[in-house]
Amino acid sequence: ETGVTQTPRHLVMGMTNKKSLKCEQHLGHNAMYWYKQSAKKPLELMFVYSLEERVENNSVPSRFSPECPNSSHLFLHLHTLQPEDSALYLCASSQEGQGLRNGYTFGSGTRLTVV
Amino acid sequence: SQKIEQNSEALNIQEGKTATLTCNYTNYSPAYLQWYRQDPGRGPVFLLLIRENEKEKRKERLKVTFDTTLKQSLFHITASQPADSATYLCARGLSSASKIIFGSGTRLSIRP
Q1: Does residue B98 have a pLDDT over 70?
Q2: Which residues of chain A neighbour B100 with C-beta distances below 8 Å?
Q3: Average pLDDT value for chain A
Q4: Which of A74, B21, B28, B79 is deepest in the core (most CB within 10 A)?
Q5: Which of B65, B75, B57, B95 is nearest to B18 (CA)?
Q6: Would you say B32 and B51 are in contact if contact means Cβ atoms under 8 Å apart?
């Protein structure tokens, strides 16, 4: 384990379902991130939270809704997704100002399939 | 745009040889570049960072270079082993406060 735990590891959902992805970090970091990884495409930065406030939202459709209740937990709420949203969703954390030197710590991801 | 590009989708080499992966950028100057390793079904793992004012950085069998004239970073694995087989991602940051943006990765396969 890297210190960043994501659940569930796999999720299959219908287009009309509502589900949530969970991320928890045990590293004392104060910044958390959601990335989307599709086949043969670069990781796409979706959301950034710094000190529990959303500081970046990269034109992500409103069917994805993040939530950061405290510095250790990050959620991604999903509703009325499309098949093209199927991907590996990765959570990462860093210590603000130290992500440069120490890199980001990633979880193992949630493999999402929308049917 | 300020993308980071890894031109080789896949690289296959013989065990014991040096693997060299390339990362290119255009139209901007990143303050630093990072390299990550990603295994199937797992998240990326941070390996090395190199700053724009550094020419070279080493860590065990890994070596990273940063050539601001060529706008390129090279990632070398010497004495490669089958266990080094993975996807390697290059990432850039524009400043110490900026978020990092990733390249699409190079899948490295080391054959025995």
Answers
A1: no
A2: 99, 104
A3: 90
A4: A74
A5: B75
A6: yes
| Residues β-bridged to residue B32 | B51, B93
User: Quick one: tokens of A114?
Assistant: 């929308």
What backbone torsions phi and psi does residue B36 show, to the nearest 5 degrees? -125, 155
Closest CB from B43, B89, B97 relative to A109: B43
- Using only C-alpha atoms, chain B has a radius of gyration, in whole angstroms, of 13
The CA distance from A97 to the nearest CA of chain B, in Å, is 6
Count of beta carbons in the 10 Å neighbourhood of residue B85: 18
Element at A102 (helix H, strand E)? helix A99-102
Nearest residue in chain B measured CA to CA from A45: B101
Could you report the per-residue pLDDT of B101-110, keeping only the tens digit for each? Answer: 899 999 999 9
A100 touches B at CB < 8 Å: yes
pLDDT at residue A26, as a whole number: 92
CB pair distance less than 8 Å for A106 and B9: no
List for chain A the helix, strand, coil content (%; round to 5): 5, 55, 40
User: What would the mean pLDDT of A72-83 be, rounded to a whole number?
Assistant: 95
* Mean pLDDT, range B51-70, rounded to an integer: 92
Within 8 A of A48 by CB-CB distance, chain B residues are 99
Distance separating alpha carbons of residues A46 and A57, to the nearest angstrom: 6
Nearest to B1 by CA among B75, B96, B90, B101: B101
- Which of A40, A55, A98, A104 should we substitute to test contact with B (largest number of B Cβ atoms within 10 Å)? A104
